[in-house]
Amino acid sequence: MSEEKETHYAVPFEIPPAKTDHIKRKMFDLPYANLSEAQKLDIYWPEDGDGPFPVIVSIHGGAFMGGDKRDIQISSMLRALKRGYCVVGVNYRMSGEAKFPKLVHDVKAAIRWIRANASQYLFDPNKIATWGGSAGGYQSLMAGVSTHVPELDDLSLGNAEQPSHVQAVVDWFGPTDFLKMDQQLAESGLAHGEDEDHNGSDSPESLLLGNKITLIPDLVRSANPETYIHPNVPPFFIQHGKLDDIVPHQQSVNFAAKVRQIAGDERVYLELIEGAGHGDRKFELVKNVNKVLDFLDQHLK
Questions:
Q1: Residue 62, φ and ψ in degrees, nearest 5
Q2: Side-chain half-sphere CA neighbours of 227 within 13 A
Q3: Residue 151: CB partners within 8 Å, gap ≥ 6?
Q4: pLDDT of residue 183
Q5: How many other CB atoms sit within 10 Å of the CB of residue 125?
Q6: pLDDT tens figures, 196-221
Q7: Could you tell me which of 251, 241, 227 has the C-alpha nearest to residue 179?
Q8: Could you tell me where the DSSP H helices lie in the chain?
Q9: What is the distance in angstroms between the CA of the first residue and the CA of the last residue of the chain?
Q10: Strands of 236-241's sheet, edge to edge?
Q11: Sign of the CA dihedral running 5, 9, 14, 17
């Protein structure tokens, strides 16, 4: 991805594809489950070597209603190939097709598929991380906290004998506590002049949960990654722009604070990026991506 090009992960418009022609070893559209056409993944391998390679599961954003595993959102993750990682881009069911928690079920089914097929595809089943932005960041967080939460798993999707935990989590500006988003945007002076950006009945969050979120607080709590934080969560690397006017940065601040409270300071790294908006190009700069990869090297190598 060009470092000059800004992307907006959570806005459901047509997102350009990533440039992958230069990647020699790759496979596209492998089904990890069979309920939906959305349940497919792509695999990219380092140029050389027979593995087993640690795996980065790339999860796209798009307001829970758009985006694709092969769009430019994966470009930053693909830089990990040069560090000896496999990158697996995952699609999952959008809110127009299935409501929460189906999208979480899908990502966890993909992780189980990766483990079940590790020897065939040169994966290291003991070194798996998730990485996503916006809605993909939310998915990445949920994969990190939801081990042993039966309602957030659907073993009928396949490979039920495999675990779905991960060893590290990268979250770029993902939402967590949906009911606080409008209030937090207002507190930061970043509200759009409409009272119900997120609380409205047609918001991405309401569409994901199947009802206006102000009417279903219990379900909102069930959809909040904070609900499932436990003492043995994997390490989290979280970055959020201070000027994010779509997903308020307080979402990440509060999540990180709860991880520290329950699991300890060493389990979470939080960085608020000054002057950065949602999907800002600052996240994708080589220097910043290398910071993410250093974190992954620390925990997966």
A1: 145, 35
A2: 18
A3: 101, 222
A4: 95
A5: 17
A6: 689 999 999 999 999 999 999 999 99
A7: 251
A8: 75-78, 102-116, 118-121, 135-145, 181-187, 204-209, 217-222, 250-263, 286-300
A9: 26
A10: 26-31, 40-44, 86-90, 53-59, 123-133, 168-172, 236-241, 268-273
A11: positive
Q: Are 12 and 66 in contact (CB under 8 A)?
A: yes
C-alpha 42/C-alpha 90 separation (Å) is 7
Q: Looking at residue 191, what is its pLDDT?
A: 87
Domain limits of the chain? 26-179+226-300
* Structure tokens that stand for 53 in this block: 């390679």
Structure confidence at residue 197 (pLDDT): 86
Q: What angle do CA 71, 73, 74 make, to 5 degrees?
A: 85
Q: Shortest CA distance to 71 belongs to which of 144, 4, 5?
A: 5
Q: What's the pTM value of the predicted model, to 2 decimals?
A: 0.94
Mean pLDDT over the full length of the chain: 94
Per the listing, tokens 């999707």 go with 157
Distance CA 74, CA 20 (A): 10
Predicted confidence band at 194 (pLDDT cuts at 50, 70, 90)? low
Integer Cα distance of 134 and 279 in angstroms: 8
pLDDT digits (tens, 9 = 90+) for 111-132: 999 999 999 999 999 999 999 9
CATH code, 26-179+226-300:
3.40.50.1820
**What is each CA distance from 16 to 56, 73, 104, 149, 181, in whole angstroms?**
21, 9, 25, 35, 28
Residue-wise pLDDT for 210-255, tens only, equals: 999 999 999 999 999 999 999 999 999 999 999 999 999 999 999 9
Q: 90-101, pLDDT tens digit by residue?
A: 999 999 999 999
